[in-house]
Design a protein that fits this description.
Length: 185
């Protein structure tokens, strides 16, 4: 029996315009031009009853699991997955079974990552699973921006900065050259 809490079943869809390369020895995929990603988990899963049956979990349990929906748009997207522990170094590790994200790098003139009413934008957005730190870098033409909810008031806050990093474990956001745009009133 699979623990829903530890597995956190999810579905991810990628679409792109030009090309996709998969480097099997590194478990890395590179998508080029007009890249869009949509990620769903928990109660947001498509065909939730079929997913529950496949992982031997009661559908009601999955429906109760908090759902997550995220999207990303960029020009070039590189994503790296954890190697299956049973696969030796240099051996191909098929991604046809459950995989865990190791990290990603999204580049473009306007990269946007959105989840649960909050978003980050810049010319580069990256995330490292080991450190649980995401980084957003802007440019003079397209500064790094973020929108999130103030925990005390529930109001959205918009910020524009040169670059920032967001520690997902602690919730701490470190910014470089901050400029408050709006408090969302």
């Amino acid at each position: 029996m699979v623990s829903v809490e530890s597995l956190g079943p999810s579905q991810t869809l990628f679409t792109w315009v030009n090309s996709m390369s998969f480097l099997n020895n590194r478990n890395t995929a590179i998508f080029d031009s007009g890249v869009e990603m949509r990620h769903l988990s928990g109660s947001k899963l498509i065909e939730l009853d079929r997913v529950a049956s496949a992982i031997l979990v009661e559908p009601a349990r999955l429906k109760a699991y908090p759902g997550r929906e995220a999207s990303l748009n960029c020009d070039r997207f590189t994503v790296e997955f954890e190697r299956d522990a049973k696969t030796g170094a240099g051996e191909p590790a098929p991604l046809s079974r459950a995989t865990r994200l190791k990290g990603f790098w999204a580049l473009g003139r306007q990269v946007r990552l959105e989840e649960s009413g909050r978003f980050v934008e810049g010319v580069e957005v990256s995330f490292d699973s080991a450190s649980q730190v995401g980084r957003v870098i802007g440019s003079p033409e397209f500064p790094a921006r973020m929108r999130y909810l103030d925990e005390r008031t529930g109001r959205p806050i918009f910020s524009q900065v040169e670059q920032f990093q967001w520690d997902q474990r602690t919730g701490v956001i470190k910014v470089r050259d901050p400029q408050l745009i709006s408090t969302g009133r």
